[in-house]
Automatic annotation (TrEMBL):
Source organism of this protein record: Frankliniella occidentalis (Western flower thrips)
GO cellular component: endoplasmic reticulum membrane
Any GO molecular function: diacylglycerol O-acyltransferase activity
Transmembrane region(s): none
Organism superkingdom: Eukaryota
Subcellular location: Endoplasmic reticulum membrane
PANTHER family on file: ACYLTRANSFERASE, DIACYLGLYCEROL O-ACYLTRANSFERASE
Name of the protein in question: 2-acylglycerol O-acyltransferase 1-like
Amino acid sequence: MWRAFCAYFPITLVKTAELDATRNYLLCCYPHGIISTGAFGAFGTEFAGVRDVFPGMEPVLVTLPQHFSSPLVRDLALCLGTVSSSLTSIVNVLRNPLGGRMAVLMVGGAAESLLSRPNKYHVILRRRKGFCRIALQEGVPLVPVFAFGENKLYDRVANPRGSGLYRIQEFLRSKIGLAPVLPIGRGLFQYSFGLAPRRLPVTVVVGAPITVERVAEPTDEQITELNKKFEDALVKLFETHKETCHPGENMELVVE
């Protein structure tokens, strides 16, 4: 099933730098998109070749705690080896004494899915600094990851910021943790509308690790500095690969 899932788009995993299998890493993926298809296919399954691309490394997807609350969804999440986005769970992965663990975190989260559009990438980074605090406290490298094509798999019902629909969606997200997005994809036998994702390629590019020195009690200035350093690395990764992944398109990246 997962082989067919990755082949459907298809999903391709691209490495730009080596990762030391004796260390643990915090991979921060953008964009979230509607359902994080690229990150899931690349790191939640074996069929984008993650163990061949990064030998000796084991990816661990980080997902919302709500996914562990209902029986069927919980069992699927556990079978896929995912962990909760709680601090305890993430730190447990990053402290593996043997190394070789990649905690894969969608930093923009559910709030970013409300901003997903096919014609641009809109990511939430500057006001998300918790991942920088964790990296500093644990002394683990940060790795920027960008899923090119993620934004094209779905459109969504128009709901500009400030609209009544957007305010309702944001209110529900703040209460339940999940964003009630109204996606527009394709159908099984036609391409105009439906809930299935569009069949378009997704290229997940893994950037070079950012070295982080361990700081037991990082200051706000140190966290902000690392957040800016990560933003610069993510933007550089996007600018380097956008023409290859979106040839002839004037694709824009908006960071907030």
